[in-house]
Design goal:
heterodimer, A: alpha+beta, 2 domains, ten-stranded mixed β-sheet, two-stranded antiparallel sheet, 12 strands, elongated, B: alpha/beta, Rossmann fold, six-stranded mixed β-sheet, ATP-binding (chain B), P-loop_NTPase (chain B), nucleotide-binding (chain B), transport (chain B)
Chain lengths: ~400, ~230
């Protein structure tokens, strides 16, 4: 490039872009939309990671025992024989288990997402606090031992709002089973807000799963032994025993796959945005062939022209990228407003690494899009180009 | 104008340019040898005679078929592409038929552009550009874009740009070709003044009246170059 000052190149590139402000703005908008869509898509993964790390990681069981681990997802089928609960209680003194809580989970699905809820059955005598110690009853009462097998429920704050339920309301679990709400939990800004807690026998009966549970949640005297305890249980009882960190790494694996899928979708928009940048920069180069030839004639090296065009392309992509981040923030706020209303969680988050990724991808896009126009501009023949009007 | 430019010793040795054409060739410039003395040399001839080919070779824009161009003993065409660019920046000034100013830069920024390329600090190059604009009588137009200047004003800005780094050789290709006679005379007066201090000015023209102002004349016809007196 010779002796040209870097700030002079950036200044010239900016002037070059503002020469045709409408075209530049439209191209930058293309990048903005592409980057914003990528930011919103990927922010979903980031937000869900945060939720699982902060909420479930902090309050879930130390060890979770099920028949097939996390392969069935968040709410496994009740297919673990209940006899496993007795076996685990026998091992409690040896392994330092302070609580053994059988759990039955089921999803109350609906085409309307806001009408869906997770049904969580656990021994009424142990209550919600056995697995979620931070849960507090805001109105009504908690489950008691006398409730076991009866048609009662304690519901999370968000589930109450979404399903329009209050104390005394009736809730249909399915066509055959109906329960009455006896307590509503205080909002926790977590997944628990969307849970409906039932006595375990009630849910087993409703699901036709008598004698079976989805999982057994274990609390340990010393949670640092979780991995050793999980391994021992797996070996002795022929079941899957997993720790919180197993759960989080399962969530992380699942999120990575979904990140890849969402990034793949964003990639289409990014490619279209990149082509728009390439087109704009190429048109700019073609329009300024004579000008570039003049610069070369008066002493600009080919590398200066190449750098100038590449800088324009990078600048254009960077402006679009920053715009994309701002627009993406708006999108994230909209997503979170929706998911807060739905489940009491922020499902999307703009993390530092996502910010860096968005800016990095924008610059990469600018670099790739600018390569061909820059090469073309730097290789023009002065005599031919000066002759062109 | 500043008068520090010493004689450049611009010399063409056995210089020619032959283009392939179909199955044959076209001789745009037949081999010729000439030392351009200090002062104003007019290269005259009708359109298509080879004047611009000669200028392109002297400037290093095009490569000769035979021969070389020497400036103070340096063979211009033996240099790399980047080397020729650096050499032009240090030793040459150019004035084109069309002013060829950078449209997004003001008159002042256009004049300082060669100094920008040379990495001269902003304050220094601004001072030099202001002085040059004052010399061509355009101080008041410093902040104007080329689109806001008349043809004659733009050409005077181009001359100021050509002088920014005090070049030893100034090559001008029909610099009055697009101007009316009155404006053309003013531009010519500027150009003839540039030879003071031993600068070599090569002026391509097909206008005999313009050629009459020169210290020396080269005539080009059908690619053959001959020197007057």
């Amino acid at each position: 490039m010779g002796n040209v000052n870097g700030s002079d190149v950036w200044g010239l590139a900016w002037r070059g872009l503002t020469r045709r402000p409408v075209r530049t703005l439209l191209t930058a908008l293309g990048i903005t939309v592409a980057v914003a869509s990528m930011v919103v898509f990927l922010s979903l993964g980031e937000g869900i990671r945060k939720v699982f790390t902060a909420e479930l990681g902090g309050i879930g069981p130390d060890v979770q025992v099920s028949l097939s681990g996390f392969s069935q997802g968040f709410a496994p089928q009740p297919n673990l024989p209940e006899t496993a609960v007795g076996d685990l209680r026998k091992l409690a003194p040896e392994l330092g288990l302070t609580a053994v809580t059988p759990v039955v989970m089921a999803v109350r699905g609906s085409l309307d997402v806001s009408q869906s809820a997770v049904l969580y059955g656990l021994p009424a005598a142990q209550g919600v606090g056995a697995v979620f110690p931070r849960a507090r009853v805001a109105s009504g009462r908690a489950l008691t031992a006398a409730d076991e097998g009866r048609g009662v429920a304690v519901i999370g704050a968000k589930a109450a709002a979404n399903l329009h339920l209050g104390l005394g309301s009736a809730l249909n679990l399915n066509r055959r089973s109906r329960v009455q709400v006896v307590g509503v939990l205080a909002p926790e800004s977590g997944l628990v807000d969307s849970f409906i807690f039932l006595p375990i026998r009630t849910l087993q009966r409703a699901e036709g799963a008598e004698g079976r549970v989805s999982l057994v949640a274990l609390k340990l005297e010393d949670p640092r032994n979780a991995r050793t305890v999980a391994r021992t249980i797996s070996e002795r009882l022929n079941v899957e025993a997993q720790t919180q960190s197993d759960f989080l790494s399962f969530v992380e694996r699942a999120l990575r796959i979904s990140d890849a899928v969402r990034f793949g979708i964003s990639l289409i928009a990014l490619i279209v945005g990149g082509l728009a940048v390439a087109n704009t920069v190429m048109m700019g180069v073609f329009e300024r062939t004579r000008e570039f030839a003049t610069l070369r004639a008066i002493g600009a090296r080919p590398s200066f022209v190449r750098t100038l065009v590449l800088t324009e392309s990078l600048l254009l992509a960077l402006v679009g990228g920053v715009g994309g981040l701002v627009l993406g923030l708006g999108g994230i706020a909209a997503v979170n407003a929706y998911t807060q209303n739905l489940a009491g969680i922020d499902a999307a988050a703009l993390t530092p690494r996502l910010t860096l990724l968005a800016l990095g991808i924008s610059l990469l896009l600018g670099l790739i899009s600018g390569l061909l126009p820059a090469r073309s501009a730097s290789r023009l023949q002065i005599t031919d180009a000066l002759g062109r009007v | 104008m500043r008068e520090g430019a010493a004689a450049a010793g611009l010399r063409a040795e056995n210089l020619s340019r032959i283009y392939p054409s179909g199955e044959g060739t076209v001789t745009a410039l037949a081999p010729f040898t000439h030392t351009f003395p200090a002062g104003l040399t007019a290269v005259v001839g009708p359109s298509g005679s080879g004047k611009s080919t000669l200028l392109n070779l002297l400037a290093g824009f095009d490569r000769p078929t035979t021969g070389r161009v020497l400036v103070d003993g340096t063979d211009l065409h033996a240099l790399s592409e980047a080397g020729r660019a650096d050499f032009r920046l240090a030793n040459y000034g150019f004035v084109f038929q069309s002013h060829n100013l950078v449209t997004i830069l003001t008159a002042l920024e256009n004049v300082e552009f060669p100094l920008t390329l040379a990495g001269v600090p902003r304050k220094q190059r601004r001072e030099r550009a202001r002085a040059l604009l004052a010399e061509v009588g355009l101080s008041a137009r410093a902040a104007h874009l080329p689109s806001q200047l008349s043809g004659g004003e733009a050409q005077r800005v181009a001359i100021a740009r050509a002088l920014a780094h005090d070049p030893r050789v100034l090559l001008a290709d029909e610099p009055t070709g697009n101007l009316d006679s009155h404006t053309g005379e003013r531009v010519l007066a500027l150009l003839t003044g540039l030879t003071r201090g031993g600068r070599t000015v090569v002026l391509i023209t097909h206008d005999p009246e313009v050629a009459a102002l020169a210290d020396h004349t080269l005539r080009v016809r059908d690619g053959e170059v001959t020197a007057d007196g």
